[in-house]
């Protein structure tokens, strides 16, 4: 296992649609090592999730994990580690919520964007077993952000550019209002 370098916006690998893995590939040493590296890199950089193309591998593997008191996103509800291979996401209902996001591949910038309030995600785990989960609120936003990465989509594509802020300016001017708004979300 190793902490890998996180690819930054401008690298074409972030704009590719990552390819599906065959079920036989999932158990390979190469993919198992990739999954371990993703977990270690996410933890070292305090992300809420990370996708394989963020460490330069254009395959459909992404993880989500929010530890209690995550320093980047202390307000996000804790979420246990989920390793997703070939995830497919679909909205439940048509309710949307405005979420403020950042991204390990977009240093120093946050912005507001619309996310589906609730989503269903189907994926294979690292053993190739199928899962289906339903997520809501900020957690649903995190899953949508990671699956977007696998489609070559970054949060800046969906954000209102007038809301872009550095992390410092977010704390000064937007954080309080955002936290008040998301506190009303059922998670
Ligand atoms: Ni990201």
Give the key terms.
29% helix, two-stranded antiparallel sheet, 187 residues, binds nickel (II) ion, Peptide Deformylase
Count of individual domains: 1
- Structural classification: alpha+beta
Strand composition percent: 25-35%
Order of helices and strands: HHEEEEEEEHHHH
CATH architecture: Alpha-Beta Complex
Spatial strand arrangement across the major sheet? 1-2-3-6-7
Under CATH, the homologous superfamily reads: Peptide deformylase
Mean pLDDT: 96
CATH topology: Peptide Deformylase
Helix content: 25-40%
Each distinct ligand: nickel (II) ion
Q: Describe the global form.
A: globular
Assembly annotation: single chain
Describe the protein's architecture and organization.
There is one protein chain. 29% of the residues lie in helices and 29% in strands. It has 187 residues and is α+β, with helices and mostly antiparallel strands. It has one domain: Peptide Deformylase. The strands form two sheets. A five-stranded antiparallel sheet has the order 1-2-3-6-7, sandwiched between helices. A two-stranded antiparallel sheet has the order 4-5. The longest helix is centred in the N-terminal third of the chain and has 17 residues, at 29-45. The radius of gyration is 16 Å and the shape is globular. Residues 103-105, 145, 149 line the site of nickel (II) ion.
């Amino acid at each position: 296992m190793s902490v890998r370098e996180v690819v930054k916006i401008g690298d074409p690998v972030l704009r590719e649609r990552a390819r599906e893995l065959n079920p036989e590939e999932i158990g390979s040493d190469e993919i198992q090592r990739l999954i371990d590296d993703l977990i270690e890199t996410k933890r070292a950089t305090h992300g809420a999730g990370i996708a394989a193309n963020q460490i330069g591998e254009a395959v459909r593997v992404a993880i989500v994990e929010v530890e209690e008191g995550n320093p980047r996103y202390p307000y996000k509800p804790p979420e246990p580690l989920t390793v997703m291979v070939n995830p497919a996401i679909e909205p439940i209902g048509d309710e949307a919520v405005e979420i403020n996001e950042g991204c390990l591949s977009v240093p120093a910038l946050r912005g507001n964007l619309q996310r589906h309030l609730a989503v269903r995600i189907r994926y294979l785990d690292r053993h190739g077993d199928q899962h289906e989960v339903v997520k809501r609120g900020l957690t649903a936003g995190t899953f949508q952000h990671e699956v977007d990465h696998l489609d070559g989509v970054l949060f800046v594509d969906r954000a209102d550019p007038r809301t872009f802020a550095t992390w410092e300016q977010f704390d000064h001017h937007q954080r309080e209002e955002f936290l008040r708004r998301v506190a009303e979300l059922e998670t």
